[in-house]
Fold this protein.
Amino acid sequence: MAGWRDLRRLTRGYRRPIVGAAALSLLGTLLALTQPLLARAAVDGAAAGHLSWPVLGALTALFAAQASALALARYVQAHTGERMTRDLRRTLTEHLLRVRIAAFDDGRIGDLIARACGDTTVVKTLIAQSLGTGLAGVVGLAAAVGLLAWLDPSLLAAVVVLFGSSFGALLAVVRQVRIASRTAQTAEGALLADLERALGGIRLVRACRAEPLEARRLDTSAGRAHAANLRMAGMVALSGPANDLAVSGAFLAVLLFGANRVSTGAMTLGDLVAFTLAMTYLAAPVFEIFQAVSAVQQGSGALHRINEVLALPVERDRPVAVARVRGSARRTRPVLEFRDVWFGYRPGAPVLRGVGFTVPARGQVALVGPSGAGKSTIFALAERFYEPDRGSVLLHGRDARFTPYDRHRAAVGLVEQDSPLLAGTLRDNLLYGAGPVTDRDLNRVLAMTGLTRVAAGLPAGLDTPVGDHGRRLSGGQRQRVAIARCLLARPDLILLDEPTAHLDPDSERALAATLHDVAQVCALMIIAHRFTTVRSASRVLVIDDGVIAASGTPGELLLTSPYYQSLAEVRLTPPHPIHPVP
């Protein structure tokens, strides 16, 4: 669980408004405690047969001042809380956007979203609202007890006994609130993760008729969240009766003992009214203290979950100055080189084993091989989503580990097989991360990728929304948009993962011509399973079981590589005729 050190760190930058809100709350409490003294004078005057209008006027002014101070305190608390939530969410989102890809492999995106949204709200209540009022409550409680002791120590003793017994019960409940709160927040995160899983794959869910399965899964997660929240609510609810019982018992005791002391002349009626009124103000700081302690218990679990996110490792550039590579060196050196690269997603289970190859500054290099051989892993290392366990990845002859991530990824573009698009317009997706682009360059790339007609057929052209994940476009259109986006960024090397997977034969031929033109100005590295894509490459690497089983030109591999021969045979074998069904 998070401790006070974490709270001190989190409140850095917000302590002044928190203390200001606490001071205003304390001012309201002190103004309230002044009222019983004036009330005593007013009651004693009324009992003697005359009303003191100045005293009544002073009481009215005190009531107004108390209300103003408390209202201003609440506003300062709310303003501070919202500002802190915004800043904390900014910190979390900026951190999450820099977290290493390997950390996402082990977590659930929905739970991380819950931590960035729901848990920050809990921490906001803890920091901005409860700590300040809790501090004011402690001081207000001490002042209220001092006033009660000055008015009548005997009655105060009865009040202390009753409130002391309820406090013991409250502390026992508070210890359980911390555990229940952590469990509830974890359950809420799991529910959001399951919902994100189902809605993110809603087409698969519908196609597999798995709505009942996902509904049961979500119902189970919702049931766990319900049970956890219900348990926490029960813990909090137990505090209410204990506090109410203490207040009611204290009032009854004060009225009984006080009436007896008034009848004996030990105190005046005004003294009894002042003591009773002061005791009502004793309940407010007690409640504020309990609320603060309860919030600390609940917020501690949320803060711990936030700290877990902030502890996830992020991509950090090494503090090594690297000079830019001159244009002549770019043309002569390989744009990418793997030197004896070993890598595994888990210790002791290498996916790549001693892989080594070079990619020249121009032309096409194709990767072929069975599924799971390591082709996508090579792309992930080339894009620096992961770092090699052993060996080196070089960009323009320099170790990529000493190149800033932004500069490396500006030089190495990636077009994934599923071609993910973001919610927004077609133009937004084309220019995403591309930097300044002229209309001429945009139109040229649209023509190269066959998107000119696609854009012309949309209702608002390039400004047409593509929908969530680009659902309003076909798979082939999304593939073209991803390629166009990469071309607009003008990288030195483009990684294409099965670029023809969603294309028809005509579009595939058009893309082949486009890639041939692109390969004249930059390097292309293509994962391919179709012979039509591979045969236009200047060099082919056959990947099998994490090693390079063969390499060479398409013509050479037709003579030396059994896998490449089988790939060519599949392409060259005529399809079976399709007979109409009678």
User: Anything to note?
Assistant: Residues 572-582 have pLDDT under 50 and may be disordered. The domain at 4-188+219-310 is CATH 1.20.1560.10 (ABC transporter transmembrane region fold).
